[in-house]
Design goal:
Largest sheet: 5 strands, parallel
Number of strands: 12
Shape: elongated
Strand order of the largest sheet: 2-1-3-4-5
Helix content: 25-40%
CATH class of the largest domain: Alpha Beta
CATH architecture of the largest domain: 3-Layer(aba) Sandwich
Length: 230
């Protein structure tokens, strides 16, 4: 459970986002006034702050006040909610930890909040339903995969294979072992089945900046939580 402060207008869209955050057991508050929001940050020290930059338009002075309040001894992650029209002029040096396109899918925002908590070392240890490795998040309760906050469409077997590998980081598994663990002992397919699923997984979760599954020549595969591409 984490405390989340949303700075923005009290409208139907904000309430929809807050509802999803609360459904995921976060304690949420909404502040329309920036001065009151800064006061809450200083007094209550929320775990994550969301700033709706899409509307209304915040003055630069107000943004600086929010970011300065979040930059004290207990660093508070700040996620900016941005409309498409603001992307060309988005200043990466402002101090936001992440941004989310707005309007946004509530579940996607929940995942970005979870990722921010993880990077800040605030992810509850009792949360056993989340496997996280940098930008890769596997929600084992919902059977969903996210990369950099965005959902990744995977088949059930691709999900099971990724979940198993990520649950056993740095361990090398032969193709036969993966067939037994993921497909079951009664599966009669060949080892090439594993190669095909690994290739499909890599096409969905890996790029130049994200490498998770390593091929161990003549043996099999292993999951590398250190993300050697970073």
């Amino acid at each position: 459970m984490a405390k989340v402060l949303l700075i923005g207008p009290d409208d139907e869209e904000q309430q929809r986002l807050l509802q999803e955050l609360r459904r995921n057991e976060h304690v949420c508050s909404l502040q329309e006034d920036v001065e009151e929001a800064v006061s809450e940050i200083e007094m209550e020290a929320p775990d994550v702050v969301l700033v709706n930059l899409a509307r209304p338009v915040f003055a630069q002075r107000e943004l600086r006040e929010v970011l300065q309040a979040c930059g004290g001894n207990a660093r508070i992650p700040v996620i900016g909610l941005l409309g498409d029209e603001l992307l060309p002029e988005y200043d990466v040096s402002q101090g936001f930890d992440d941004f989310q396109l707005y309007p946004c899918r509530p579940l996607e925002l929940v995942t970005r909040v979870r990722q921010a908590l993880w990077h800040a070392g605030k992810m509850p240890r009792e949360d056993q339903n989340v496997l996280s490795c940098g930008d890769l998040v596997i929600d084992t309760n919902r059977y969903e995969v996210f990369l950099a906050g965005r959902p990744v469409e995977v088949t059930f077997k691709e999900y099971e294979l990724l979940r198993f590998l990520a649950s056993n980081p740095d361990r090398v598994f032969t193709r036969e072992a993966l067939l037994n663990r993921v497909w079951g002992y009664d599966y009669y397919g060949g080892a090439r089945t594993v190669d095909v699923h690994i290739r499909r997984l890599r096409s969905k979760i890996e790029d130049r900046d994200h490498l998770f599954i390593e091929t161990v020549r003549n043996v099999g595969y292993r999951f590398r939580p250190s993300n050697p591409a970073a």
